[in-house]
Design goal:
single chain; alpha/beta; Rossmann fold; globular; binds ligand PMT
Length: 222
């Protein structure tokens, strides 16, 4: 039998994309499939944790978890996370949350009239940064999806958002990242780092969760 080091602990995981409505039939979205976040939820569950999975709209079936919350927008994901984070021991943000949403959502389907159409965007809340700013707070693990300068951007996000750990992946390349079966990660924390080579996301999630558990158990209560 596998050891259950997270027995009695609550782990909150975000997964998938968000959709930001433009009008009743259109949205701004991204290519996240939910694979990485779902694999993490499964791996935490296998270690005995009560997993709360907050997911944006994805095509794949969700794993069996203690609570599944399905949301659409960044604002809904933020509300779902904030309503549950007080009880969480560990928070992992694997979702690809839209940084911006349309300032206005058209009540009716926008008609094809002008040659150019401008959609004004406003900033969404940064869910990860908001969780990290709480006191007390869970052990906080963020992701960084980057097309270049992976380590520099990840270090900036680790310190800028005040995280305990960050898992950085290259996106927009041939292999790994969004909507791929495999992924590779560079994981950073204060005083250490670890590189996981390209492998199937369930296997990668298993290894990342072992690392998170190790750091979480070694950390002082926040
Ligand atoms: O779903 P898959 O197809 O399996 O793809 C997996 C993945 C590539 C989506 C995943 O591994 C990943 O990198 N997720 C984070 C994607 C992302 O939005 O990264 P970012 O660098 O833009 O954001 C940094 C961190 O802040 C992330 O933890 C993100 O969840 C969080 N964030 C970002 C914006 C926001 N408004 N709120 C947030 O919480």
């Amino acid at each position: 039998d596998r050891p259950r080091p997270l027995h009695g602990r609550r782990v909150l995981v975000t997964a998938g994309p968000t959709r930001e409505a433009i009008d009743p039939v259109r949205f701004i979205g991204n290519r996240s499939s939910g694979r990485m976040g779902f694999a993490l939820a499964e791996a935490f569950g296998a270690r005995g944790a009560d997993v709360i999975l907050v997911t944006g709209p994805v095509a794949r079936p969700a794993p069996a978890v203690a609570e599944l919350v399905q949301v659409e927008t960044a604002l809904e994901m933020d509300a779902a996370v904030m309503a549950r984070v007080a009880d969480a021991d560990i928070f992992v943000a694997a979702a690809a949350v839209a940084d911006y949403r349309p300032a206005e959502v058209a009540a009716d389907k926008i008609k094809k009239q002008m040659d150019e159409l401008v959609i004004r965007l406003v900033k969404n809340p940064d869910i990860l940064a908001r969780v990290a700013a709480r006191r007390p707070r869970p052990f906080v693990v963020g992701f960084a999806a980057e097309t270049s300068q992976l380590e520099q951007h990840a270090v900036a996000k680790l310190h800028g958002k005040g995280l305990d750990m960050i898992a950085a992946n290259q996106v927009g390349a041939e292999e790994g990242g969004f909507d791929a079966a495999d992924n590779a990660l560079l994981v950073l924390w204060a005083g250490g780092q670890h590189s996981f080579p390209l492998m199937p996301k369930p296997q990668l999630a298993d290894r990342l969760v072992d690392l998170i558990v190790e750091r979480y158990l070694a950390s002082t209560p926040r």
